[in-house]
Specification:
Number of helices: 14
Low-confidence stretches: none
Strand content: 15-25%
CATH class of the largest domain: Alpha Beta
Structural class: alpha/beta
Helix content: 25-40%
Largest sheet: 9 strands, mixed
CATH superfamily of the largest domain: FAD/NAD(P)-binding domain
Shape: globular
Radius of gyration: 23 Å
Bound molecules: 3-acetylpyridine adenine dinucleotide
Distance between the termini: 38 Å
Mean pLDDT: 96
Number of strands: 21
Amino acid sequence: MRKQENQGPLDVIIVGAGLAGLYMLHRLGGLGFTAKILEAGAGVGGTWYWNRYPGARCDVDNMFYSYSFDEALDEEWNWTERYPSQPELLKYINHVADRFDLWPDIQLNTRVVSAIFDAGRAAWRIGTETAESFSARYAVMATGCLSAANVPDFDGLDGFQGRVFHTGHWPAEEIDFTGRRVGVVGTGSTGVQVIQEVAKQADHLTVFQRTASYVVEAFNRPLDAEDRTYFKANRHELREAAKKTFGGFSTMANDQSALSVTEEDCRRKLEEAWRAGGITLLASFNDFAFSEEANMRAQDFVRDKIRQAVRDPETAEKLLPRHTIGCKRLCLGTNYYETYNRDNVTLVPLGDEGIERITATGLIAGGAAFDLDDLVLATGFDAMTGALNKINIEGRAGLTLRKAWEAGPRTYLGLMSHGFPNLFMVTGPGSPSVLSNMLPTIEHHVDWIADCLDHLRRNEFSEIEADLPAQDRWVEHVNETAAKTLRYSCSSWYLGANVPGKPRVFMPYIGGMPSYRETCTAVVDNGYEGFVLK
Ligand code: N01
């Protein structure tokens, strides 16, 4: 193992070369800071590098899921589909790295395992899996909200003789399922995408479903020259309008209660939103997230869609979700429910005992044995805190982030955590992050951090830290805001409920992007209120 102290201290080490890390590097370069990205993967792209499973695509319209910081980039890039596929996104991200000459400051194949704060020098020492060591005054964790795979501890998994894939670590080479009996575990956003594709290839596909999901129709389509001309001519207005919405998505929300209209009118409006396609269905009315009665109207609407799509009534019944709609993230599909009309697809709802065990040749669930050649785990992520907690982060006086967050994450604005000076997070817990359109949200955080570092340098500060009382007030506000919604009524990854033993805390901030942006701006205008600058 190499043990190496790398070149002299840098201004900033960025961990992760996804959409956040790359833009951070670009901004810092523009400000004249010395910075370097350390990236575990063999390429850039983060989420879009690792999640290469068949069917992987973004479920946000490309116009709103692309960088907005550079006019020429927008002008020259031509998206080909409404929802970009993983290969197209990866090509775009590589193009960004080329176009802005980012490669010289990106070190690939470098997994960061530790980050230790040296209080005497007010600097971070970053250690890697191969015992390399880097030093920088600031560290920016651009490690992603959904990047630490959740691999359930299934009894017997190691003894399975077939192939096992986790969707979040999909191999780079093409995987052929022709003639094979494939089992997919998990029916969240990822499972839904992978199931639709594997069903077309496998000899037989068995889907093991713990919780039935609400899947809305994508209505994906190829884009033509007219679409592109429209977007390029109107992109500023479209993006500004999107920023004023709760999640930064394309649709202006309807500020009307679902209960203020007749059931028929409610259905008409939902049908209109359904036909438009996309996960903004629930923006059709303003109280789906707050009122169980209103929520039931949307639930019934989607359940009826499922009954219409699935020919076998018994299978349809098994596919009907029963939880609050929107409590778990809505999934996006293209004829997902119709997949269960195929002769080569079987749905197996899991009972309370779940998957009992994996055998050498398949698995046992509900007392029945299923023979499988391949097992695909679409079992999600240790979300929001997983990637950070995998790194041994030690702040002031040896305090570890794992210890500081053992009862759930504690941050100020999702940007910093008390006890960890000069360490920033991009879209950390306590920020809208995963409840919003990630790209504008990433740009917002990166701009905030870059401007902050510039401010510190201009004013000759060498240290910034979240103030404890300010952080406590923010955490309370984050919790109070979530408690007013129906988000505690299901077992979602937002609550950490998918990972055994994880504290049940609603991790993202659910106050909406517009008010969050205003708060971040006000904090700066008030001299970085709630932060201690030294
Ligand atoms: O993960 P998930 P995901 N035994 O946690 C099941 C984003 N995303 O990778 O619901 C059996 O949602 C689990 O069951 P349950 C998006 O934000 C975006 O699908 O916990 N089953 C569930 O069905 C999304 O929300 C895109 O009861 C087990 C599934 O596995 C987030 O990523 C595409 C199990 C996991 O679903 C995560 O989605 C894809 C066990 N032990 C994802 N453990 C875009 O298009 C878990 N499950 C942008």
